[in-house]
Amino acid sequence: MATIPTNPIPQFPAGFLWGVSTSAHQIEGAAAEREPSVWDAFTAGAGHVKDGSTAEVACDHFHRYPEDVGLLRDLGVGAYRFSVSWTRVNSPGGLDFYDRLVDELVGAGVRPVPTLFHWDLPSSLEEAGGWLNRDTAERFAEYAAVVAARLADRVTKWITINEPAEHTLLGHALGTHAPGKQLMFDALPAAHHQLLGHGLAVRALRAAGITDIGIANSHGPTWAASREQADVEAAGFYDLLLNRLFAEPIILGEYPEGLGEMMPGTDVGSDLKTISEPLDWYGVNYYAPTRVGAPEGEDIEFGGITIPAELPFTVKEVEGAPTTDFGWPVVPAGLTELLTTFRERYGDRLPPIVITENGCSYEGLDDQERIAYLDGHVRALHEAVAAGVDVRGYFVWSLLDNFEWAEGYARRFGLVHVDFETQERTPKASYAWYRDLLRAQSRA
Q1: Which of 172, 187, 230, 397 has the most Cβ atoms closer than 10 angstroms to its Cβ?
Q2: Residues facing 417 on adjacent strands
């Protein structure tokens, strides 16, 4: 059983935003009532999802959203981060669902925080080239304008794109996620076009009068496996590829040295000006650090992903750290390290930070391991705040157990247990822990 500190978690600054996160494809279901996405096509392929499942029903949130908003209200969160399904918006009446959801949230006193893209690209756009096609960035901005026109009267805080790094690496380079491409470094145009789409969407949201915009980028410290030069160089390249490639165009308006030449477009300089449109805050999804070493000449299985031998790095276990049921290392101090490193690296150019995802996969309703994980990470976050990092909010992943991408329903990240046969929701011990934390913070 995990050990949880008995001393209270320190108070965060006034106005700190506490929330939970989900995504459309993972919880909504009602697949027949929207256009197909790349994830529908991917899960239809044999062997792509470990348990052979699909998100056709998932948590049936599309039909059960009032119950789920009730869980949010009773939890006491200040905000709910959800994603808008581009495919649903493209379908007749699709925006009506988000109208209803937003009205329900506002009525419950929960701030809606939509993410415009969380990996479920419409299949029609994928057939035209997807994120490898520059035109998709333009279409994304048009879609952002349509959603803003409907919801901006009640929704003030917006997120453009979720984790372009993972969508590039897993979806376009390694093929373990939709759309299942195995392009290796030829996947980099997908990174550039997502970043360009982000910048164009920021402009579209600004044109709609929105003044509270961020992105949700995944980041974590990169640790060299040893002090040997080969390991240090491999770790530096990994950090370049998974952290700096996605942070620096947005924060600094430039690609790390050497990577800009690998990006598409006839006028990268103009694209970077768009990509670096000023943000009101910068979202960070944090789960764990990564220990990286020089390649070992063979494929490596790590965290459910195959690391091909031809990559210039390999990923190794974080020694001495406990792991989640997913096999991910539990290192709360890595969050403090990440945030203080970003502050040192980017200085005054770094916008205020919001932790847009942090969570873990564990089984069981009495999920003491999840409580210990969250407790440790909230304390680590407070250490970063005490060290001078401007952090404005924290969102737990996730409200509900859900369809966990290529893992299917085998991984449970929720504060609320979902029986996928009956759709019964049962709050876990971690739900009560988070509710009590929020009450304690609100009494400050």
Answers
A1: 172
A2: 426
Distance between CA atoms of 54 and 181, rounded to whole angstroms?
Answer: 19
Longest CA span, the chain: 58
Instruction: Answer for the pair 22, 81: CB distance below 8 angstroms, yes or no.
Output: yes
Q: Which parts of the chain have pLDDT scores under 50?
A: 266
163 a catalytic residue = yes
CB 171 within 8 A of CB 119: yes
Nearest to 94 by CA among 156, 32, 179, 155: 32
Marked catalytic residue, from 28, 166, 357, 369: 357
DSSP string covering 224-258: ESSSSHHHHHHHHHHHIIIIIHHHHHHHTSSPPTT
Cis-peptide, bond into residue 398, ω within 30° of zero? yes
Give the three-class secondary structure for 131: helix
Q: What are phi and psi of 87, to 5 degrees?
A: -65, -35
Sorted by sequence, the CB contacts under 8 Å of residue 320 that are 6+ apart come out as none
Given 163, 166, 248, 277, the catalytic residue = 163
Beta bridge partners of 291: 223, 316
Q: Do 86 and 120 meet the contact criterion of CB atoms below 8 Å apart?
A: yes
State residue 267's pLDDT score. Answer: 66
Q: For residue 430, give the 3-state DSSP assignment.
A: helix
* Of 105, 104, 197, 121, nearest in space to 159 by CA: 197
406-423 pLDDT, tens per residue?
999 999 999 999 999 999
Beta-carbon neighbour count of residue 309 at 10 Å? 12
Both ends of the chain: CA-CA distance in Å? 31
- Please write the tens of the pLDDT for every residue from 321-367: 999 999 999 999 999 999 999 999 999 999 999 999 999 999 999 99
Give the residues across from 162 on adjacent strands. Answer: 216
Nearest to 318 by CA among 402, 224, 229: 224
CA pair distance 23, 119, nearest whole angstrom: 9
Q: Are 136 and 193 in contact (CB under 8 A)?
A: yes
User: Which residue is it, tokens 């160089």?
Assistant: 233
C-alpha to C-alpha distances, 66 to 106, 280, 424, nearest whole angstrom: 12, 30, 14
